[in-house]
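Reopening this ticket.

The earlier resolution said the output was attached, but the attachment link was broken on my side. Pasting everything inline this time so it's all in one place.
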Amino acid sequence: MKIVVILGLCAVVVALFTALVFLYRDRGTGHRVVIALAVRVGLSITVVAFLLFDSIIKLLQIPAVHQASLELGYSDSSIFAVGVVLLVCCVTYLVPRLSLVGALLITGYLGGAIATHVRVGNPLLTHTLFPIYVAAMVWGGLYLRDDRVRALIAPKGRSGK
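Inline output:
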């Protein structure tokens, strides 16, 4: 299973690199195009890779995950379900037409993580606020790659109205 995941991530990286090369050759006017694409896609890929890793270790039911979940107050039987929920959120985020819904779902998931860390009294900066850092990357990546999100968040002078 681990090899399949690693091969899948490698295939994504190769596909993105190939797309980057073709974009640069066919339509790009300089290295700004390459940088813009790398930032847009790189931020989203980084956060999704992290969340997919988190989901997969829950689905594989690794003993360290069970121990950490018990310390957070979750039962062994709930870990697999949490992994499935996170996987569905990530897949939804990766589908371009559903990426906004996926970002909302991931934000809700991360809100639950914040509540869990507050409940058990974990340190603020390293544990409790970490899901907010991840959510900022989710929304930042989506903002950079989706015109709909930019239109929602754009300052009034730049929205064209």
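Reporter confirms the inline version is readable. Residues 114 and 130 are 8 Å apart (CA to CA). The chain has a mean pLDDT of 79.
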